[in-house]
C-alpha cells in the first residue's frame, strides 16, 4: 500500500489550548469538587499566636456540636513523633527541626494547626473549630533575622541551640573557577582607578496567591488509598506520604485533577494532606479538606524574604572585577520541602550574563516565628536577578555611565558561547546583543531618554524613569548528578510513555503534570510532529500516579526542557520499533526504510505504510518478525545533561507624579530568548503571567507582620494583587538561539517574566527619582513610599550639593558616605 498521510508541522504553531474547552466552560474538575459518598470534612484549629506554649485544650463544646464526628490532636492520632520531610539538606550540619502535622507543646507561627475537627459537612467542621478552647502561654516572637542571630536571642527551637538553619558558601577562588573576591575588593579599595559599591537590598515576603486554594481528599475504599490533591507534585506527594506516614507506596494512588495555578505554592507536602490520609485510615471513610482563602494566605507557604548585602568592584572604565553576595534568608518556623535550597538555586545566577572574574556567595538561613518559606515562581533566580541588575544600575550611578552601555561592556558576547561562568556552569547558547537591540528598538530607548532629559530640564512634576533588566536564568531542574552534588533529595529526570492504539490514535503519558501551563496542547504538538500524526489524534494523560507511575512533576520550568524531551525519546523508540515492523511488512531491508511525516517508505520506491497502519498491524499481530513483540508502545526516562539558560532584555518606562508619589507603568517591552518555540500563544500567556507577578513584587505585594508576629494583611482586602486595570498592555517578543543541550533546542519560559521584571520596574522608579536625591525605595514601591522618599530627600536637599541632572548618568550622583546602603532614612 502507498502511504497517504499528509505531512504535519505543529512546532511553532499558535494553537489554542485543548484544555481551555473544559476550563472556560466550567467542565473542569478541581479537588474541591470531588466528594466521594460518605465523605467527612475537616477544619484545622489554628494558633492565633506566633510563639506560645500550649497549656490546655478543651474539646468538649466542639465535640458536642452538630455534625461533629470527632476532635483530634496529634496525640489522639498517634502523630506526635511524625514530621514532614525536607528534601534538601544543603549542608551536612543543617538544623532540621521536626515540622509536625499538628503542634504539640509549642506553636511556632500564627496559623499553625493545633487540632482538627471532623464533621459531616465543611460548614459544621468550621463552626465547631471555633468552639475548641485552647489555652496558650505567650512566648517572645522571633521576627527579625539579624536579631534572631544575635547573642542571647530568643530561640524558635530551643533544642537546636541556635536560630541558624545552615550557612552555605561558594567562593570562586577556593573552587578554582575564578579569582578571590577578597583580593578583588582589597585591590579596588587601594586603587584610585577602581570603585567599590556596596548596597543592601530587601526581598520582601510574598504569598503565592494561586487562583484555586489548596485542597485534599483521601478515599480509603478498596485496597488502595486514593489521594486527590491540588498539587504540583503528585509523584513526590505519593513518595513523601510513604516517608511520613509509613503507608506502602504501592498502596497509594495520587491524583492531581485540574489544578488552578501553583507558582511553587503547591510544591510542598502539607500537614493537611497527611491529616486527611491519617484520618481516612482511622475512620475508614473518605476525608476531605479545602482551605479558605484566609487560611491560604496565613498558613500556605510564603516566598522570597531575604536580606541581600551586595558588593561590586570595578575599574573606572566600567569593567567589573568582583562580586560579593551575603544573604540572610528567612525560613520561617520550619523547613519546607525544598526551602533551604531555594537561595542556593540563586547562588549560580548572581553573576547572570556578565563576565565576572571573582565571585563569592554566602547565605545563612534563619528560623523565625513566621509561616515557612519555600519555592515561589522563579525560586532563587528572581532574588539573584534583582540583586545583580540593581547593583549594575548602582555601579552606573557611581561611574556616571549609561546603564545599558555598562551592561553591554560586561556581558558575554554571542561569539563566546558556550561560556563557562565563574560559578562553573556552562551556558550553551545565547545572544544578548540581539535580544537587547530588538528590545531597545521596540521601546524607543533613545527617544525616551530624550523625553526624560526634557522633563528634567523643564522641571515637569511628572518625571520619567527608564528601567532595565538584562537577565538569564537556569531552568529545567536537571541533571541528577549535579543535583546530587548539591544534596538535593531527588533527581532531575523525567519519564514519558507513548501508547500507539489500534485505531491509529496516540496516548502520551507524562510525569510532568500541568497546573495551567498548557501541557496537553504543547505535548500534543510535539508528538504530532515526531510521529507524523494529526494533532487531534494525540491525547496527553498526566496527574495520576496510576496512569503515570513514574515522574518528578512540574516546577522550575522543567516541563518542556525535561518532560518534553522524555516524550521525544519515547517517540524515537516507537519509530524504531515501527521501522522494524515496516521493513518486515514491506519485504525490505530495515536499512532501506525511510521515515518522514508519519510514513515509512522503501528508499527509491513508492511502496510505504503510514505509522497508523503499522500500529494496526502490531495490534493484529498476524505477521511480525520473530524477534519482535507485537507492540509499538515505548517508555523513556530522560536525564538532561545540563540546565537550560533562557535570557532576555526587559525595559520599563515609569512615570512618577512627584507631587503625589503616584507610580504609573507607562510602557513595558521584553524580548526573551527561549530557544525554539513550540507554541507562541502559550509562550505569550506564560510571559504575561510572569510579568504580572514580578511587577506585583515591585509595586504591590508584601506580607506584613505586626510586632507580635501576626499577619496583618491576610485577606485580599489588604494583600494587594494587581488586576488587568493596574497593568499596561505588554509588548512581548521572542528571539531564538536554540539550546544545544536537547534535541528540540528549547529552553523554558514559565518563570522568565517573573525573574526579569522586578528589577526593571524598581530601576525605572529610581531612575525617575534620582535627580530629586532619592537613592533607594523598599519594595513594594507604592505611591505612599515613593511620596515619603521624595519628602525625605527634600528634607536633606538643603544640606547637600545640588545634583547635576545633565550628566551621562542622568544625575545619579555618588554614594552618600553617611548612608552607604542607599536606604531611605
The count of strands amounts to 30
The major beta sheet can be summarized as: 7 strands, mixed
Parts with pLDDT < 50 across at least 5 consecutive residues: 1-7, 802-825
| Basic shape | globular
How many helices?
22
Going across the biggest sheet, name each strand in turn.
3-7-1-14-11-12-13
Instruction: Output the radius of gyration.
Output: 28 Å
Distance between the termini: 82 Å
Beta content: 15-25%
The chain-level structural class is alpha+beta
Q: How confident overall, as mean pLDDT?
A: 94
Task: Kindly state the percentage of residues in helix.
Answer: 25-40%
Keywords: Molybdenum, Oxidoreductase
Biased composition (Polar residues): 816-825
InterPro entries: Ald_Oxase/Xan_DH_a/b, Ald_Oxase/Xan_DH_a/b_sf, Ald_Oxase/xanthine_DH-like, AldOxase/xan_DH_MoCoBD1, AldOxase/xan_DH_MoCoBD2, AldOxase/xan_DH_Mopterin-bd_sf
Region (Disordered): 793-825
Name the features.
single chain; 825 residues; alpha+beta; seven-stranded mixed β-sheet; five-stranded mixed β-sheet; 30 strands; globular; disordered N terminus; disordered C terminus
